[in-house]
Design a protein that fits this description.
3-stranded antiparallel beta sheet; mainly alpha; 400 residues
Length: 400
């Protein structure tokens, strides 16, 4: 039922096409027999056009798991009564509908992230985060198994696998928590990636190897090669969360051997989040190769600004004095300032990140009259959803 709006207190029901299927215990589609219509295949669209609709499937010989809203058949938020984590894991590992398979994974990830966040927030801050999360159950083996099933499914497109491996963003998680601590959200999210990488390292390395190309292979732009790049770079990104020396060496090698900007930036982005010699080497090599290409250097500025290393604000301040940065060039400001505002360092506990963006907005406005923060609506979300200490730091900035 559509809620009433000004001038329209009574709304008629709106037609919702609900595409559905039923999964058996093995994750395979069950044949559907709809009462009054007979056999309708393994997936059918139900017309929901009243406040209450009822549909009955007959000849269902095993307990099914409903797969609802297949293909995102209607732009609605769906709540499924009785849907358990076991149901979601089955769908994530086996559902034949790509949208529902991805959605099941996202729901599982979000439930886990919120559970670990609450446990970490409720425990003593002196206890290491990994111990706080482990005490709350860590990353369940069943979720790891479902993640593995997606990674090893030969029928799935590589781009789909890469998207299914990606956890909900910091902004999505913060939006689900009252007075969230963004730094803790980032730490919990990173913990989950590290656990997945530790438990599935052979599978992730296998995905990289299976989708890799020999060094020097000419760049091809087609769906198949895009999917292979997407999957191998996402797998490398998950492995990069381990910060293991051999992984960092592989990333530096991949950076140097890349024949296209997609692969080069993917490796550089992961390297930038680790305090290793390879990080500085890669950044310097990228700059030297592109110092006469100002548009390419925007990526170089952004990848450093968004780095998650503690204290990265000093690096960002130094970049403001670098020849690659011009404060009167809007794209330079977007790359550096908005890149930083999307990073965990924006939310530094001492408020220095908020102060830096406040200083930058004032400086840019005085010089060119343009506004930086207004270009990113996510920033406004970040200014309102935090815990009291951060709200206090934030509160000083708008008044300036």
């Amino acid at each position: 039922v559509t809620p009433p709006t000004n001038g329209q207190p009574d709304k008629l029901p709106v037609l919702i096409p609900l595409k559905v299927g039923l999964l058996g215990p093995d994750g395979q589609d069950l044949p559907l027999h709809l009462e009054g219509k007979g056999s309708v295949g393994s997936s059918t669209v139900l017309r929901c056009d009243a406040e209450h609709n009822s549909f009955t499937f007959t000849d269902v010989e095993v307990e099914p798991v409903p797969s609802l809203l297949r293909g995102f058949s209607a732009p609605v938020k769906l709540q499924v009564t009785g849907q358990s984590d076991d149901h979601l894991r089955l769908m994530f590992a086996h559902d034949s509908d790509p949208f529902n398979r991805w959605e099941a994974g996202q729901r599982l990830y979000m439930k886990l992230l919120l559970q670990l966040y609450q446990a970490a927030a409720g425990a003593a801050a002196s206890v290491p985060l990994a111990e706080r999360c482990a005490a709350a159950g860590g990353v369940p083996g069943e979720l790891v198994a479902a993640f593995k099933a997606v990674l090893e499914d030969a029928e799935l497109d590589g781009s789909f696998k890469a998207m299914a491996m990606r956890l909900p963003s910091m902004a999505e998680i913060v939006d689900r928590i009252d007075e969230a601590d963004p730094v803790l959200v980032w730490q919990v999210r990173q913990y989950v990636y590290q656990q997945l990488a530790q438990q599935l390292r052979p599978e992730l390395e296998g995905a990289i190897k299976a989708n890799d190309v020999p060094p020097g292979t000419p760049y091809e732009f087609n769906a198949q090669q895009c999917a292979r790049r997407h999957l191998r770079n996402m797998s490398a990104s998950v492995l990069g969360s381990l910060e293991a020396p051999d992984v960092q060496e592989q990333l530096l090698r991949r950076f140097r051997e890349a024949t296209n900007m997609t692969d080069r930036m993917a490796a550089l982005t992961v390297l930038c989040d680790t305090a290793t010699p390879g990080r500085e080497q890669a950044l310097q090599e990228f700059y030297e190769a592109n110092k006469e290409k100002p548009l390419v250097l925007l990526k170089w500025l952004a990848v450093q600004a968004s780095c998650a290393l503690p204290g990265n604000i000093a690096r960002v301040r130094a970049l403001m004095e670098h020849p690659a940065f011009t404060i009167t060039t809007p794209n330079c400001c977007y790359s550096l300032f908005l890149g930083f505002a999307r990073s965990v360092n924006f939310h530094a506990a001492d408020g220095s990140g908020y102060e830096f963006i406040g200083d930058s907005v004032i400086k840019v406005s005085r010089r060119s009259g343009q506004t930086v923060v207004g270009a990113d609506p996510d920033i406004h979300m970040r200014l309102t959803a935090h815990d009291p200490p951060q709200q206090q730091h934030l509160g000083h900035q708008p008044a300036r």
